[in-house]
Design a protein that fits this description.
alpha+beta, five-stranded antiparallel sheet, elongated
Length: 251
């Protein structure tokens, strides 16, 4: 949630776009930044030389396929050269790893699941330690109603509640309240026509309760392949990086 707050002023405008376009834009911008940082933080003359050496080694290994002992020697040299190339490449990772983690956290908080629409039924699941038993009571805030019983028994480590409600952010003092074993637990819920949703799982709870999760529907960014945001992002990233490296002559 901290990362979401950090990037919201910059990236929340992407949420009005179709998800596929938004993921493509993020992938393009991140790929461009990473490519530029990579070029600036590596010795491009050395990288070009190492890449050229690796191509030569590959040619030699093909020619020596009938001479296994000699091919092994060339393969060993190729591996050493490849290791040098990887070590040089790693320098740029030092500068890019933290921003990527922050961006990925923001995307996971906004593109992983479908939001809960007003008056749409959804389920909240409480997961308990093995052997836990007893009844769980839910106290929904004003604006959310329970579909079915407000008291459920723990069966095989789980208790489920079906709910629906009006549009709103049900957080902090206005969150869902659960009573179990003389203890209380809370879970935030966001109901909206937009694309926001509350954190899927909350795990900072008191045993025997292990976690509380909302059973969201996974958002398919690339429906044709049934892919979510991460797979789609990686696909775009590979395509954009390949093109950008050629355009910017990065080795």
């Amino acid at each position: 949630m901290v990362f979401e707050t950090l990037l919201d002023p910059i990236m929340s405008s992407l949420l009005v776009l179709p998800p596929l376009l938004a993921v493509a834009i993020v992938s393009l911008v991140v790929s461009l930044i990473i490519t530029i940082i990579y070029k600036l933080t590596t010795n491009q003359d050395l990288m070009k030389q190492l890449k050229s050496e690796m191509k030569e080694f590959q040619k030699e290994m093909k020619e020596l396929k009938d001479h296994p002992e000699e091919m092994m020697k060339v393969q060993k040299e190729a591996m050493q050269t490849n290791m040098k190339y990887m070590m040089q490449s790693f320098k740029s990772t030092i500068f890019t790893i933290l921003p990527i983690i922050i961006i990925f956290s923001w995307m996971n908080a906004n593109f992983a699941y479908e939001s809960i629409n007003p008056h749409e039924q959804f389920e909240v699941i409480l997961n308990f330690d093995k052997g836990a038993y007893g009844d769980i009571t839910i106290n929904p805030p004003q604006g959310i109603q329970v579909v079915g019983d407000s008291i459920e028994e723990v069966i095989e480590g789980k208790a489920k509640f079906a709910l629906k409600g009006e549009e709103g952010r049900y957080t902090e003092e206005n969150a869902l309240e659960f009573l179990y074993s003389d203890k209380k637990a809370y879970k935030d819920v966001i109901i909206t026509d937009g694309k926001r949703y509350a954190e899927k799982e909350k795990s900072d709870v008191t045993p025997p309760l292990k976690s509380i999760e909302i059973d969201y529907e996974k958002k398919k960014i690339l429906p044709l392949l049934n892919w979510g945001w991460l797979g789609t992002y990686i696909l775009f990233s590979i395509l954009f990086s390949s093109v950008l490296r050629k355009l910017l002559k990065v080795y």
